[in-house]
Design goal:
alpha/beta, 19 strands, 12 helices, about 475 residues, binds flavin-adenine dinucleotide, eight-stranded mixed beta sheet, nine-stranded mixed beta sheet
């Protein structure tokens, strides 16, 4: 089994991409984007389309798609990155939340549209999203969640309840008792999307400099306009500097307690046999998850494998990040166990590759797209694991904000959203590890339907976890 090497997705692309040059020296630009993941690249792509004359420079510490954008589960999903109730506190109220959700749903199609228009071959298939309940407690949670969706006005066109039989006829998950199906979700090969997007931005004239870590973003000196991104190769002075560093943000000066770098880990099988696929089904390529507290997410890859992810070691002390996605043996064993439990037909297939990455989690679990025209500094991120589609919407929104366009996107409730900062260490580490220990215990207790009291205790512990963390459901 390969481990790390950034991700299976990059290795399936033939290895790391050919490296672009580093920043050749100090320079001036109209817009400087820090971070070459989906957020930075989509922002650059749309801004270059909106204002073709601008000089747009992307500074990337490693290579475009090195971060979560080249490692994720490949769900382009309309899932709201945050809590409806919290977004509803913004000026737009509940209508603003609905507008954000509508925008996220149409974003799934927008990603597909650009992939087709720019000939980005990333295995985009819009097969919807299926969340499966495999215990009575998960089924109760799924129904409760659906009642919540209905109370916000989501009809059958947005969420459909599936019986156990209906669920298994889509994807034969062992022990499936029911499912929730949402059509607004697509599957992609994440690194292929990142690579294609970087090339599409370059075709629009965007300059991407790699192996160029930014050490600081600051306002320009008194009497000068704009902002500065500092690197060891020189500084980029620009009217606008946009921080698009999601899970890596805490490493920049002054931002240690802003976005928590939450780990997510993945494994991918060897290609399954035709007989195994005949048993499993999954012909619609739905993006798949379960309703566990420490949930799993999965996709059927275009090359006939199952890629499955979950939390594992949730967080590294003092917001440290992984080295090239190397992941620990205990997490690999746990994810392999989940995979074999849910897909007995895949039991004989070996695990080909394991890796991990970091995603950005704000303290209130609500994402933000922010731009201060006066300082020229902006940022977007904090998508809490739902960043693939959200980064496209955030990129279009940042492009409008930087261009000074007032649009329906710039009125969405995540624009200018501010949450509080995370607790200092060691409370941050203890809190996150304690929370996921609680979730794992809750899942274990709920998995024993013969013992009613254990199940009730498990569900209660899960609720306690949600209350402590503020994770929205
Ligand atoms: C394993 C995993 C699975 C996931 N699965 C899904 C999923 O299926 N669906 C979904 O919607 N979301 C998923 N996510 C989350 C999603 O991938 C991210 O939210 C999204 O890719 C964030 O994009 P980004 O561009 O903001 O950040 P990133 O892709 O992390 O990009 C940030 C970039 O900034 C660079 N950088 C950082 N600091 C600096 C600096 N100082 N100077 C210069 N460059 C810097 C990094 O090298 C990196 O390339 C997953 C995340 C992980 C880790």
């Amino acid at each position: 089994m390969r481990n790390g090497e950034v991700s299976y997705w990059w290795q399936a692309q033939g290895g790391f991409p050919a490296r672009r040059g580093s920043l050749p020296g100090s320079t001036e630009a109209d817009v400087c984007i820090v971070g070459g993941g989906y957020t930075g690249l989509w922002t650059a792509y749309y801004l270059a389309g909106l204002r073709p004359g601008l000089r747009i420079v992307v500074l990337e510490a490693a290579f475009a798609g090195y971060g979560a954008s080249g490692r994720n589960g490949g769900w382009v999903t309309a899932e709201l990155p945050g809590s409806r109730a919290r977004y509803a506190r913004a000026a737009g109220g509940a209508a603003g939340v609905r507008a954000l959700e509508d925008a996220l749903r149409s974003t799934v199609d927008e990603v597909g549209r650009v992939c087709a228009a720019e000939s980005i071959s990333c295995d985009f298939v819009k097969g919807g999203r299926l969340s499966v309940a495999t215990t009575p407690s998960q089924l109760a949670r799924l129904r409760e969640g659906l009642a919540g969706q209905r109370s916000w006005g989501d009809g059958e066109d947005i969420y459909q309840f599936l019986t156990g039989d209906e669920t298994r006829s889509r994807v034969n998950v062992a022990g499936a008792l029911g499912g929730l199906y949402a059509p607004a979700s697509a599957r992609v090969q994440p690194a292929a999307l990142a690579a294609g997007l970087a090339a599409a931005a370059e075709r629009r004239g965007v300059e991407i400099y790699e192996a160029t870590p930014v050490s600081e973003i600051r306002s320009a000196a008194a009497g000068e306009s704009g902002a500065v991104a500092c690197t060891k190769f020189g500084d980029v002075r620009a009217r606008s500097v946009l921080r698009c560093t999601e899970g890596y943000t805490a490493r920049l000066p002054g931002l240690r307690r802003s976005l928590l770098p939450m780990n997510s880990h993945m494994v991918v099988t060897e290609p399954l046999s035709e007989a195994a696929w005949a048993e499993i089904g999954w012909d619609g390529c739905e993006t798949l998850s379960d309703e566990a507290h420490a949930y799993m997410y999965a996709q059927r890859t275009a090359d006939g494998r199952i890629a499955l992810g979950g939390r594992g070691v949730p967080y590294r002390f003092a917001s440290a990040v992984d080295h090239l996605g190397q992941t620990d043996a205990t997490t690999v064993a746990a994810l392999t166990g989940v995979l074999r439990r849910l897909f007995p037909a895949a039991s004989s297939a070996g695990i080909a590759h394991a890796w991990c990455g970091v995603l950005g989690v704000p303290r209130d679990w609500c994402a933000s797209v922010t731009y201060h025209a006066a300082s020229g500094i902006g940022w977007a991120g904090g998508y809490t694991g739902h960043g693939v589609a959200a980064a496209n919407l955030a990129g279009r929104t940042l492009a409008d904000l930087v261009a000074g366009e007032t649009s329906p996107l710039t009125a969405l409730p995540w624009v200018g959203h501010r949450g509080r900062t995370w607790e200092p260490e060691p409370a941050r580490w203890a809190g996150v590890h304690g929370l996921y220990a609680l979730y794992r215990l809750a899942d274990r207790l709920e998995a024993d339907p013969a013992a009613d009291s254990r199940v009730r205790l498990g569900t209660a512990l899960g609720h306690v976890g949600d209350m402590i963390s503020g994770i929205p459901h």
